[in-house]
Amino acid sequence: MPEMLFDVRWPDGERTRCYSPSLIIKDYFQPGQSYVLSEFLIRSREAYRIADERVRARWGMGCGNGQRTLLDIEERARNCAPDSLVTIESFTE
């Protein structure tokens, strides 16, 4: 499966590199675009759900790295104000 990395800038200015087991992230985010935290979480959850389904269909089990990345995103989001902005900085395939 094609996998990718994407860089996220959080409201406090910190940057994190996130892993996706699928290019589906490109259907949900655009580099340079900012998203209100609640929208970012909704899009992330949906994209990772689809990515996990794709991995499961191909390999018979979900992607642990993708699941951990989503958990990391959700944990990081708990420390942000609900109306704050998260920016997708770049994609790396």
Description:
The protein has three helices and four strands. The longest helix has 23 residues, at 37-59. It is of the alpha+beta class.
Major sheet: arrangement of strands: 2-1-4-3
Please write the string of helix (H) and strand (E) elements. Answer: EEHEHHE
First-residue to last-residue Cα separation: 11 Å
Indicate the structural class.
alpha+beta
- Beta strand count: 4
> Main sheet?
4 strands, antiparallel
- Indicate the radius of gyration in whole angstroms: 13 Å
Mean pLDDT: 95
Give the helix tally.
3
User: How many structural units, i.e. domains?
Assistant: 1
Low-confidence stretches: none
Features:
single chain, alpha+beta, globular, 3 helices, four-stranded antiparallel sheet
List the helices and strands and how they pair.
Blueprint lengths: L3 E6 L5 E6 L4 H4 L5 E3 H23 L4 H14 L7 E8 L1
Antiparallel strand pairs: 1-2, 1-4, 3-4
Short overview:
The protein has helices at residues 25-28, 37-59, 64-77; strands at residues 4-9, 15-20, 34-36, 85-92. By secondary structure, the chain is an alpha+beta fold.
